[in-house]
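The authors assume throughout that readers already know how a fold can be written as discrete tokens. A single example would do more here than another paragraph of explanation. An entry of this sort, consisting of the sequence and the corresponding backbone structure tokens, reads as follows:
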Amino acid sequence: MTGDKKEWAHDLASGVAASFGWFDAPDVVDERLLAQALRNVAADCDNLGHTLLLRSVADALDHPNAEKRLRLGKSKPGRPSSGELFERAFMVGPSVIKLVMAGVKKEAAIQQAMTEFGLSRSAVIRCSSEYEDYRRIFEPGQRDTEARKVMHDTLLALDEVKARSTQRHRKPSKKAGD
């Protein structure tokens, strides 16, 4: 935990630890531990409505005869914004294209990008395709105006900046067996 207010406010393990008066947060928070923490808070609560709500949620977490059942699960990351997708295309696309141009087979280049950026195969293929589309659109031709040539030079410069910053923004790769 970094101490960021938003991060702290949503840290379930720290909330459970606080309800028990523990200094260290538990490594794992399961339904039973969360239910116990909610019952601890309910016991100290002066508001009857809050007490009933906390006990109802606790029962839904761990009581075998509860009318409704609640389960804890890991949340999935949301879909990236269009700006993040654009940026990702300009980080992943050049990586794949440069490997292919260096003689690496396309499938091996895709596998390497999957490992390097922590993305799925389809995400890497989509990024490569979008990057190639951007390059085709802005590649200067014989009839292009000065503005398109400036845009092309800008994109080339952006490629270099993205390539340098890739190491800093790269997701950690997932190892087999984790």
